Amino acid sequence: MPKKIILKGIPASPGNVEGKVKIVNFLNEVKKLTKGDILVTSFLTPDLVSIIRKDFPVLGIITDKGGTTCHAAIVARELKIPYIAGAIDATKKLKNNTFISLDSERGIIYEKA
Amino acid sequence: MKKLSNFKKIEGIKNLEKYSLPAPATIFILDLKKQEKEIDDFLKNRDIVMIRSDKEVDMSFCPHNLNCPKAKAKKFIEELVSKGYAAILQEHVPSEEDKLSGNILIFKKNILMELMEGGPLTLLNREGKLDEYIKIRRNDFKEIEHFGKRLITKEDLGRVLKLIKRVPPFKILEFSIGQDWLYFWQIRDDKTAKELKD
């Protein structure tokens, strides 16, 4: 059975991963992230990027804003973290703790079968 | 002794010349005393200038003043240099007249443009403000993907593509287009782009 597409965005760093949605609206919520999470946030601000550069536990990243050429996308590619940018309203449409699949080579977010 | 070649942003600005890409008049300052005459000559006949900065190792936010009055320029440069930055002194480009700013990423087969209304470009790079996305085939400049508002006119797009046609793949270029100007801000390698689908 074909997987159900939830959202589409801009491929910013390639990879295929599955994980649990963790929405981060404020920087202090980063601590709730655990290994196996997919970080969903409005945008990867320089503060968040500096946290990602350290020992960051997430499997993948989705942001409402941004694109392939933003600084955050370049960092995600350097760190080989799959990243879909510009997935409009991802922080509203995705729900915490739901399982999703990311095809960040094509910029597609699927419901996990 | 500091060398300009150790500063990535400065290298990115200097490399624009290699591809004959238009850039605002610029000088780089590492030593205020030694370069005082050069700075005075640059400031002559200018009321406002843009001052940006770059640091050898620290790639985080570098201070800048994009509307610096001539009278305050030397003081600002002095502060930057004393804190270990290299100062980038440029001719003033009025941001309020920006029509659009953007990044261009060159692949082997295609060219990707991500654009935003107005400037400065840090809004796209650091805050993700993206208003238009265009993917163009390199060999015939045919548009193969587009979304967002139509910001760039066909004429401007043609002008930009003509300028960058000799730029090799996996380079990222930053630029802005105003009422009667088109400037590139820097050109950098983006080896990470090899990972992306062309």
Report on the structure:
The complex is a heterodimer of chains A (113) and B (198). Chain A is of the alpha/beta class. Chain A has a single domain (5-111), classed as 3-Layer(bba) Sandwich (Glucose Oxidase, domain 1), CATH 3.50.30.10. Chain A has helices at 46-53, 71-78, 90-93, and strands spanning 5-8, 10-13, 16-24, 37-41, 60-63, 83-85, 99-103, 108-111. Chain A has an eight-stranded mixed beta sheet. The longest helix of chain A is centred in the middle third of the chain and has 8 residues, at 46-53. Chain B is an alpha+beta fold and 198 residues long. In chain B, 23% of the residues lie in helices and 32% in strands. Chain B has a six-stranded antiparallel beta sheet. In chain B, strand 7 (132-137) and strand 8 (143-148) form a beta hairpin. The longest helix of chain B has 13 residues, at 70-82. Chain B is globular and about 50 Å long. The termini of chain B are far apart. The chains are: A alpha/beta (113), B alpha+beta (198). Chain A binds chain B through residues 10-11, 13-14, 42-46, 50, 63-72, 74, 77-78, 85-86, 105-106, and chain B through 60-61, 103-105, 112, 114, 124-130, 133, 172, 190, 192-193, 195-197.
